[in-house]
Amino acid sequence: MAETFFDVCVIGAGPGGYVTAIRAAQLGMKTAIIEKQHLGGICLNWGCIPTKALLRSAEIFHYMKHAGNYGLACDNLSFDIEKVIGRSRGVSKQLNSGVGHLLKKNKVTIIDGSGSLKGGGKVAVKDKEGKALPDVAAKHIIVATGARPRVLPGLEPDRKLVWTYFEALKPDIFPEKLLVIGSGAIGIELASFYHTLGADVTVVEVMKQIMPVEDAEISAIARKQMEKSGLKILTEAKVMKLDKRANAVTCTIEDKDGKTSHVTVDRVISAVGVQGNIENIGLENTKVKTDRGCIVADGYGNTDEPGVYAIGDVAGPPMLAHKAEHEGVICIEKIAGLPNVHSMEKTQIPGCTYCYPQVASVGLTEAKAKEQGYKVKVGRFPFLGNGKAIALGEPDGLIKTVFDEKTGQLLGAHMVGAEVTELIQGYVVAMGLETTEAELMQTVFPHPTLSEMMHESVLDAYGKVIHM
Amino acid sequence: MPIKILMPALSPTMTEGNLAKWHKKEGDTIESGDLIAEIETDKATMEVEAVDEGVLGKILVAEGTAEVAVNTVIALLLEEGEDASALAGADTSGGAAPAVAPAAPAPAAAPAPAGAPAAPAPKPAAPASSGGRVFATPLARRIAAQEGIDIAAVQGSGPQGRIVKRDVEAAVKGGGAKAAPSAGPAAATAAAAPVAAAPMVTVDDPVFQNMPAFDAVPNSSMRKIIASRLTASARDIPHFNISADVAIDKLLKARKELNDRDGADYKISVNDFVIKAVAVALKRCPDVNAAYTEAAILNFKKADISIAVAIDGGLITPIIKDAGSLGLADISAKAKELAGKARDGKLQPEEFQGGTFTISNLGMFGVKSFNSIINPPQGGILSVGAGEQRPVVKDGALGVATMMSLTLAVDHRCIDGAAAAGFMKELKGILEDPISLLL
């Protein structure tokens, strides 16, 4: 590598890092990106994308199982887990090379290796064998090192019997019996995948509800539907101990009253959250501060060290790819001095969970809105009242909207049911444009679509619902 | 260059009007202040005065033309030394921004019939003040309306400078709308058009450099609230004042008798009488005990009287609730208690938020009479001057009486002249004959 001086150096080529690098290059900055493993990061290789590929297989399998509901026949149903996994890996690979292409197209210098801050605007780089490469100097260094699975003492993944999402996405066997610790997006999606393909799955969640960040009403509906399909869910429960045998694990679970029970499974998935990758990146050589496993940064990615910025998961929750991308763009546009750059409105970051049924939300839950002192108007519309939902054979679900009674601001929207992950963006746009209930009511929603429920939910909040 | 005479905006909400009559002909010499035309709106007919002087060179919008958009060029004025040749090719484009289409020049020789299509009206949302379209999110507009902020004067920070929620919230916090930079050359001649909020002068403005040294006292939150509410009130509420002199000799006599009674544990002031009399008069004239809202005029069923009390760093208006139903001793006690709490900063929110009418009394400073700014959303405020002996003519003879001047300011959107005058008559009657309160 001939040149080692850049305007911008991004450490980590996950969705936050590579988007930031592309934007930097577009703004005319000479940009380098350092990646130690995969372009596209966890999201593309071990997270968002490969899970969606798996869940698509599971979804089709689900419909095949229920083909009779649609007047179709599909006998002798089976699946080949290796092919299902193979497809998922193929999807990741395709997109991974796509990221490489985009970076090259934008003339971003890609450095294979691990970057570590040296202070004074320099980054030390080591290749995969640990051999030192020339230092990279840059005016602006953006740390986008992402996050990794959190490890709880006593429940440490051994990556054989106790999996993290890495192993769960590339399993050695198809587990007949599976225990999933944690019901956040990662846990519940993996549970949903294995359950749909026929595994006997138990989910253990320490909080009162599954998907603890979601609206309680939505979470309860999702839970009811999952339990109806046979998924076992234990809330306010803790996994106390894992007794590993040769090819099975006996789990000791304590419920909220302190009573213990045991369940023996083939594999355990630990999905108890993720934590920032702040180690071994040379933070000690800088004034960068950390808090609870993440780098402390302001709304524009500025850390306590001038010239060093942090974005994405490593800069704190919510740890979502789209948050990382957006944060990266804000950071680099602020560095470039573009006008009207504002820090992100964190209440307008949508979240999607692709379990069955799907869950999607943006903004404040009803409980959070009330906690913050809003007087709210709440609208609800069930899938059962929507023609398209009935035609699809998906009559279960709910769309819920939360408005500030005083100003008509849409504070939050929460959905459970078929395709809601594709619907939520309508409300996100509405929130971003600061529409009130009036504009949403005046908007024409196409018939017949699931999106009509978004209209009806708003109408319901103001006592004007039609189809209920 | 001939001077453009623009269709003026006679009210902040006016977007178009009818050109009812020209008082001047082409070729007439015009002095500043001359009456040149009459404009009709849905509410009234108003006269337009010349701002500049010169010779009326060309009338572009004929008498009788309806629906002329604000800021349309209606005529051209030739400056001293210019002759008619200057009119050829003169720019007749409208006074302001893109929302206002250029005027369709109607040649003077062939006056357009009434109702002839004039320039298309600008979008109703366009504030008359800047003439241009204001880009603001629906939520920002709604919050601005709720908080009484002039959205046109807020500086936008959203995409393309759009005004978003945080801008309006900052304007609310900062005490009033920040003035936006002038939109362009525009409306210099549209003198009748109200201008956007006056540009906020900052402490480091160079204008202060050649002025004496000063202490900069940072604006307290009370000061900011006073600034924002009263700026909005003075700008947005069409105030008018009426005044009356009241003879208070009988009142003073009654007061003395009451205060001199054996065992009196009260000391009733003239102001206590005024509070009582105002509350009773408001009950008799509910049209004046009112608030204007977008959809309806609210006529309150009780008169809760706000009393302006000067305190350190500002003023506050504690409320005597349903003062009409209280006796003078109770009013006196309540007024003292509230004024004391106000000075100690111990008023509870419900004690100073929500009155229906305000009384401001500066009589103790020897002020004869003054005007007040309405305390929104109330519809009226009474300014009370000092009671003083003045020569009066009664039954053809000169005499001496103790007189007090009262000035009422009301919101014309909800209270008209006759209603205000009726209230003053009632109030004067009570104060001049206080024993009538017993009836």
3D structure, described in words:
The complex is a heterodimer of chains A (468) and B (439). Chain A is of the alpha/beta class and 468 residues long. In chain A, 31% of the residues lie in helices and 26% in strands. In chain A, the strands form six sheets. In chain A, strands 1, 2, 3, 4, 5, 6 and 19 form a seven-stranded mixed beta sheet that branches. Chain B is α+β, with helices and mostly antiparallel strands. Chain B is built from eight helices and 18 strands. In chain B, a hairpin with a 2-residue loop joins strand 13 and strand 14 (314-316). The N and C termini of chain B lie far apart (71 Å). The A-B interface holds A 340, 342, 406-409, 433-436, 438-439 and B 137-140, 142-143, 146, 157-159, 161, 164-165.
Any descriptors?
heterodimer, A: 468 residues, alpha/beta, seven-stranded mixed sheet, 13 helices, globular, B: 439 residues, alpha+beta, six-stranded mixed sheet, four-stranded antiparallel sheet
| Strand residue content of chain B | 15-25%
Helix-strand category of chain A: alpha/beta
- The end-to-end distance of chain A, rounded to whole angstroms, is 66 Å
How would a textbook summarize the main sheet of chain B? 6 strands, mixed
Class by SSE composition of chain B: alpha+beta
User: Biggest chain pair contact, residues each?
Assistant: A-B, 12 and 13 residues
> pLDDT average of chain A, as an integer?
95
Strand arrangement within the widest β-sheet of chain B reads: 9-18-17-16-12-15
**Discrete helix count of chain B:** 8
Query: How many strands appear in the DSSP assignment of chain B?
Result: 18
Cα Rg of chain A: 23 Å
Secondary structure tally: strands of chain A:
24
Shape of chain A: globular
Number of helices of chain A: 13
Can you write the helix and strand succession of chain B as a string?
Answer: EEEEEEEEHHHEHHEEEEEEHHEEEH
Average pLDDT value of chain B? 80
Measured between the Cα atoms of the first and last residue of chain B, the distance is 71 Å
Tell me the overall shape of chain B.
globular
